[in-house]
Each structure stands twice: as C-alpha cells, then as structure tokens.
Write a structure and sequence with these properties.
202 residues, mainly alpha, Arc Repressor Mutant, subunit A, 2 domains, 75% helix
Length: 202
C-alpha cells in the first residue's frame, strides 16, 4: 500500500511539473493534486526536494533502460549520439530535474537521502558505462567521461528550449538561421558527435 501511494504521489508530481514547472511546485500544490492532507504527504516524503529527487530517480531508471536497449555493438558514432539524445529527451521533466539536481535539489535533502542517491547514481552510471563500452569500443574511463559530458551538454542545450518562441514570420533570414543552428536537438547531436570523436582520438 505504501509503495502504491508513493508511486501515485510521484505520478501527481510529474503531472504538476508538466503543467506548471518546477518553480510553482510545492508540497501544498502536491497535497491538493493527490487529495492528501499535507501531514499525510509528509509521511511519505519529508520535503519538496525529496519528492523531486524520488521522481528524478524513477525517470533516470527509465532513461537507463531506454538507452541500454538501443545501444548495440557496431553502431556508427552518429547513431550512438542520436540514440543517447532520443533516450534522454523523451521526458522533458527528467531533463528539467537533472538541471536542478546539483544546484538545488541535493542541497535541500537529508544527508541519509543524499548518501543513498549517490549510491543509486553510481549504479545507474556503471550500467550505462558498461553498455557504452561494448557499443563504442572505448575504455570504461572514456565512457564515464562521455556520460558526464553528455549530461552537461544535455542540460546546457536544453536551456535553449526555455527561450520564449517568436513567430517565424517575424524573424529575419539571419535570425531564423541562428535559431535553427541553436536548436536543442541540433546542438546536442553536433557537439555530442565532436565529444565522442574527440575521446576516440585521445
């Protein structure tokens, strides 16, 4: 029963984040969404950040499973980068939470929860690195660097999607060209390929 309730809370949290973003997310709004009293909600998660971390952990495991399924030996580098991007960008909430993980979420959780998160993070990283080693032929150390670099690239390039959109017809030709060049998808694919090829040349 407790696991089912925790899962229901995380589903509601995901829905709220999709609707209104992270800055509007609070235990009060979550309590309303789940139809739980705030005191009851705190029995499952002791803070807003612990809810966000638990949701991120769940989405990260789904990401890992998606990615590992798509990575096969013999893939071309461009295919590897594309698979990584598709697995990572499937759920924008995961990217959103990843962007706040180090700067906000980890600073506002209990030490015991943080220690558990570090262990879980290492386990996910190890399984992804292992599959990338098979797929790319690179050493574990280089694949570790690849995953860390791709995480930073994903968060950085995703910020471009947060820019308010402007109707295409209002933009000059050069502004349209710049906007296309700075698209989240394009930036990740082009720079992700450069990172992977750079690691091969080291």
């Amino acid at each position: 029963m407790k696991i089912a309730r925790r899962n229901a809370i995380l589903e509601s949290a995901h829905e709220l984040l999709t609707q209104s973003g992270i800055d509007q997310f609070s235990m009060e709004t979550l309590a309303r969404e789940t139809e739980l009293a705030r005191a009851s909600l705190y029995r499952y998660y002791s803070s807003r950040e612990e809810v966000l971390l638990a949701l991120y952990q769940r989405l990260r495991e789904e990401w890992r499973d998606r990615l590992i399924k798509t990575l096969k030996p013999g893939m071309q580098d461009a295919q590897i980068v594309k698979s990584y991007f598709q697995a990572s960008s499937k759920d924008p909430i995961q990217v959103l939470l990843r962007s706040r993980l180090e700067s906000t979420i980890k600073h506002n959780i209990r030490e015991s929860v943080l220690a558990e998160e570090l262990d879980l993070s290492q386990a996910v990283l190890a399984s992804v690195v292992s599959q990338l080693t098979i797929c790319t032929g690179l050493s574990e150390e280089k694949c570790h660097d690849l995953v860390i670099s791709y995480g930073a690239l994903l968060v950085g390039s995703s910020q471009l999607d947060a820019t308010p959109s402007v109707e295409r017809r209002l933009l000059s030709t050069s502004a349209r060209r710049t906007r296309k060049a700075l698209s989240y998808h394009r930036l990740f694919l082009s720079n992700g390929l450069r990172i992977l090829q750079g690691l091969r040349q080291e």
